[in-house]
Amino acid sequence: MITENEMREWHRTMCHVTPWLYISGDLHPDSARAQAQLAEWVGRGVTDIVDVRGEWSDAAFVAEHAPEVGYYYFGTHDDGSLQLDSWFDQGIKAMHEARRRKDATLMVHCHMGINRGPSMAFAMLLEEGYSCVEALTDIRDSRPIAAIAYAEDALRAHHRRHGTSASLYLAERAAMREWFSDNEIDVRTVIRAIRTAS
Fold this sequence. Notes:
CATH architecture: Alpha-Beta Complex
Radius of gyration: 16 Å
CATH superfamily: Protein tyrosine phosphatase superfamily
């Protein structure tokens, strides 16, 4: 069990999920600290950023301070309601576009790195052939505060995109629900810890 201090530290920690995929919280609101953070991302190989916050975009900031980095903005809500298939499809398209280059490494982030960013990263892993349990486990192992709240929406979108059978979808959804039951985290405490530090 991680402490609230550790939860705060995870907010803007780069979490290496696969050789080509990182997840994190967003860039710091202080410009100097954000520049240092962005430089760390680039220094660790990030070539493309997928920003999924509906409330803010760093497109101009990244263009000024790291113009070599590709920036994709697919802002959405984090109110617990449905995430549309089209939102995940945008992220998958960006992933394919970036990964046509052999050196591509993506940073997928939202504000806190709890729900939206990890859920989009989950969708990308499904697209790359991971089972839902493998993808969820890899994300949580790399980022213990990731709740991945929109994982069911991502799984549904994935099966619709590929036209798989209803039986396969239902089996994967059952495995996902069992995984979440076995791997609960206290999301409210995580969010409160991060908010009190911001």
